[in-house]
Amino acid sequence: MTATTLELSLGPVLFYWTREDYADFYRAAADWPVETVTLGESVCSRRRDMKLDDWLGIGRELAQSGKRVVLASQTLIESEADLRDLRKLCDNGEFTVEANDQSAVQRLAAAGLPFVAGAALNLYNPASLAVLARAGMQGWQAPVEMSRDDLTRLLADCHEQGLEAPCEVFAYGHLPLAWSSRCFTARRHQKPKDRCKFVCQKYPEGLALRSQESREVFTLNGIQTLSGACQDLRHELPTMAEMGVASARLSPRAESMAEVVAAFDAARRGALPAPGPLALVEAEVCDGYWYGRPGMDNTRAVTAP
């Protein structure tokens, strides 16, 4: 396989921010060196500050700045109201949808609309990818726990079978691991889920869950569980390009995201810094899944001289 020109994409904001925070963030993102921006609420339907029209407005502004815009669907569908919102999203008429749930796939396929398959669909083999390609899939995200070696084999198998839909890898941010019908953040504040008073908005980068050894094992984000450490695959961007990966996803954080994007942009152009956390970004780093190890491992730190 020949190397591809690796693009950078900005994933949806996973945390619950204010309308002003979203506006400021995407106003700045319009000038960042990323080719694709994915918008929308993919975690919790109770986060209603931003309506579909608000996301469409931001999307139009980003599109005018030359960005490819995608709208993310909710990952966990729990009610008829969620399905109604999903139908509106799929029928937006302007932007491609990232399907993070099979109900979104069904809606988009039935309407004959192209879509991007999100990592939560758990696509591990060419047979699954072929089914979704026939349904209209135009791109897909590798599961966050898939190793470099497994993905290399999968991409090679897809190439042999003529499945050429672009693949995206989650390259930076707290890894999305699981979703639940319960809201962990509300429970932390002793509030029922349906009367949570949106306490997750107090944590613009999630609520750290520490082990008895005071290690940040997970990050709680409402109904979503994320990794405690922040995945950083900057040094793997040249390898991804050689493998045939089309895009590296950067998951937004509340602080210093411009520096993160700049560092990844430099890395894809060959300017690789010494191993270590990104400047101005205070977070424990992990890369274990990529190397076929426990996800929380920091392999570069273990192997550094």
From TrEMBL:
The keyword Lipid biosynthesis does not apply. It holds the Pfam family Peptidase_U32. Coiled coil: none annotated. [4Fe-4S] cluster binds at residues 44, 183, 196, 200. Pathway: Cofactor biosynthesis; ubiquinone biosynthesis. Its cofactor is [4Fe-4S] cluster. The keyword Acyltransferase does not apply. InterPro entries: Peptidase_U32, RNA/ubiquinone_mod_enzymes, UbiV. It comes from the Bacteria. Keywords: 4Fe-4S, Iron, Iron-sulfur, Metal-binding, Ubiquinone biosynthesis. Forms a heterodimer with UbiU. NCBIfam families: PRK15447.1. PANTHER family: PEPTIDASE U32 FAMILY, UBIQUINONE BIOSYNTHESIS PROTEIN UBIV. HAMAP family: UbiV. Belongs to the peptidase U32 family. UbiV subfamily. Required for O(2)-independent ubiquinone (coenzyme Q) biosynthesis. Together with UbiU, is essential for the C6-hydroxylation reaction in the oxygen-independent ubiquinone biosynthesis pathway. This is Ubiquinone biosynthesis protein UbiV.
